[in-house]
Amino acid sequence: MSVSCGVECALVFGCSRWALKRCTRVGSDDSETWPLATHDEFHPVPRLCRLILAVYEPDLRNPQCPPDGGYRLNPDWVLKHADYEQTLGRSPPYLIYADHDRKEIVVAIRGLNLVKDSDYKLLLDNRLGMQMFDGGYVHHGLLKSAVWLLNEESQTLKRVWEDTGREYQLILAGHSLGSGVAALMTVVLVNHRDRLGGIPRNKIRCYALAPARCMSLNLAVKYADVIHSIVLQDDFLPRTATPLEDIFKSIFCLPCLIFLVCLRDTFIPEGRKLKDPRRLYAPGRMYHIVERKFCRCGRFPPEVRTAIPVDERFERIVLSCNATADHGIIWIERESEKALEVMRENKSETITVPPKIQKLERLKTLEKEHEDALQKAVSLNIPYAVPIAGETIEIGIEEMETETEAVEANNGDNPKAKPELSSRGTNWDELVEKLFERSESGKLILNRELTTRQIQ
């Protein structure tokens, strides 16, 4: 009798302790040790939020639901505004915009439409560990959507970039479902930059707003220099490794699912999560907008913290009434605009004195953080993680080969380069499959020779 009472007391104590820790955890706990982001690195975010919101408008000259202050874009600079009829369900609707004031070419991709079957089919086209790519795992349906969009628009992007003097940045931005498509488009483009006229890596940027977990940890860290994920406070989507298809099949009972996932993840050791190569994560460098604090009512002036986390990478669900509201693109736009205003005010205080953080010094800090994150991934034995030295060598070899082919093509000595400039454009399906080989059953598997070269 006493033994059973002791077991019961221990069980009650354990459950109470778990409930207390979960109920007192707030979204700001995930980034409490991260440094603050600067104005220069965060300033594109509100503008890109407005561009994504513009995708929802049928007529940008007569907007129906503009955000505060309007979309602040020039409709004459919109190169393409594709809806569901034009994408044929292969991709969420998107917008291509040439911002000549800021010298940017922007591809903005909207998020999930709850009443469109094609978006659900895109999410359901996946299975845990189904798709390997570039030495890691990615979401199969989102990768297919990214490749389809590249087949449709890469020639347009290449033409515009070359016509504008090869000076513009290429920015891919997406929200929710669109964030996964944009992130995987970025991974493909970075590996085949020569197909866009040899655009430098430092001119390609991706901003994933309320990001879907679409790639394995080694890829999320590897591409942290070009992919930036923006998370608003308690947003549930970047925090749950539950497959996207399971999340959105339960969209009308989402609080129940979040609670069950929270309970399940409590019993999964951190080491086991890190060693699972199939586990998907939010991509790239993380920017966390924090506006609420524990046991304090209301919203506070938001602050933005940033890091490239390897372990503890938004792994714990926050049981909050704002877990779903913080996922909305409207709230992300509003709070990021407020955060940018706070940064602007703080920056204005240093007008008459040297700035606290020099721009060049901050750039070196970002590069150092990326190197440290890559090295930490290797030290934690993350599957397929590679150190920065190996990646730098590979990029250097790729750039040398691209330059050599370009010189030979200009001199007429390389006949193999000429067919790539045909009117049919680049076939991105073929380029992506170069990273794979097919098994006897016809399934795509990772090319062993390429994997070995990357690990070495």
From TrEMBL:
Superkingdom field: Eukaryota
Region described as Disordered: spans on this chain: 404-425
Ranges of residues in domain Mono-/di-acylglycerol lipase N-terminal: 7-71
GO biological process, one term: lipid catabolic process
Alphabetical list of SUPFAM superfamilies matching this protein: alpha/beta-Hydrolases
One Pfam family here: Lipase3_N
Record domain Fungal lipase-type: where: 106-242
UniProt keywords, alphabetically: Hydrolase
GO molecular function, one term: hydrolase activity, acting on glycosyl bonds
Protein name as it appears in the record: Endo-1,4-beta-xylanase Z-like
Native species: Hibiscus syriacus (Rose of Sharon)
